[in-house]
Model the fold of this input.
Amino acid sequence: MGRSIPSFRQLLEIEKLKWSSFKRLLPTKRDKQEFDKVFDSVKLYTTYLGNASNPVPLESVLMGAIFHDYKQPLQITKEDTAKLDESNLKEGLISLLENKPKWKILFYRFSKKWHGFFAFLHKEDRLLLLKMILEICSYNECTSNIINIQDSQSPIDYFFFLLSMIIQQKRINRLNIDKKKDVTLLDFMYK
Done:
């Protein structure tokens, strides 16, 4: 008797196939290669994302890609991730929860939904993910007003994803300030 529920690796391939018409419409061969790289980067986290039990595979793809993209600039710039200390991150979390009540909602909703992903990551990646979450949830109090406008789960998740991408793009722009050239996340990651 076979499995009735596909593994996350199978869901990832199905999701990639669903987006194949989008890939075909991309204008250049390089864009198509970048599309494949996004899905390839998510494959690095299939074991962990499979534990997230997310009913929307595309959200898991986005989460895996965003987390991988968050790690890349840190590794390329050799930002000292060894300084990541659980106690410092816990202090940041306590400060966030006490001082920014609107962001507390985003943090708890994110933590509840992605608990399986977070819980099964290796310690170093778990600390990096917590750092990423704290950066996003500490971003700007004005942008947190959207949390009160929409009460459903999906807009909150997409709000989190978009904020993550904005923060990453700002980091990339800071790195390229000397070049005086606008660089996107994909340009930076796959040089």
